[in-house]
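As agreed, record minuted below.
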Amino acid sequence: MARPAAAQQTAVAPGAAPAVAPLAASAPARSILFVGNSFTYGALSPVRRYRAETVTDLNQSGIGGVPALFKRFTDQAGLAYAVSLETASGMGLDYHYTQKRALIDKAWDVVILQDFSTLDRAKPGDSGLHRRFAALLAKMIVARNPAVDIELSATWSRADLVYKPGSPWSGQPIDRMAADLRRAADQARAASRQIRGVIPIGEAWSRAIVAGLADPNPYDGIGFGQIDLWSYDQYHASAYGYYLEALLVFGRVTGLDPRSLGVGELAADDLGFAPGVTLALQRIAADQLASETALSRR
């Protein structure tokens, strides 16, 4: 993955947490587009309208969401990004390709593609639509800029589909759905030369649960000292969950260690996170991204 020059200069060694760099006014802005649904725009949380004025919502619906968190991070890291988003509630990549091409068929430096939470609403877990429309979108986007970095988001296990009956993941371990979604994203990436990578959001959620930071089952109460990654519907993310998502996008796209943002990171402070939780989420994101790098070297 090609990194911007500023990222190469400010990347940190694992474990380090230097002060956040000031924004370099002279740096040319890289364009990044987020394509997705409520999992990208931060539904059922204060993230949805967070700093919407700092990003461009192509649908003009006043969304800040995960893109605005990413923008907040990059500003603090001294990186210039022009952030845009095109999101629609409950929609998959097929919708964005068939209905929103006029908005997204432009030259971008980075594009993040996030699909429906079960991949296929009619056939949950079936990856056929995911592979097909990820490839079609990637082909369209690359035609505008052959050097674009296209990343697929592999999202989280939905607690409502794990702890309630009636889904393919009912009664399965909480990490199973996230693993299945990651497998589908890997298949889509393998099927398309234009897709550069996968952002392991769901696996980072699973890592947070294993580490004891996040409670695995919101239906039986949240353990003392733990956080709830899900919102009140046990489907969408809480502010903590979206923050972790944004950290992973930040680390994957810029090449920077998320821990470089540090305990004083401004978005976490705006959202009212305890300092220890901020650091723990940054550590989880960094560890997940490091594990991806280790796997790619084998």
Observations:
- The first strand starts at residue 30 and ends at 36.
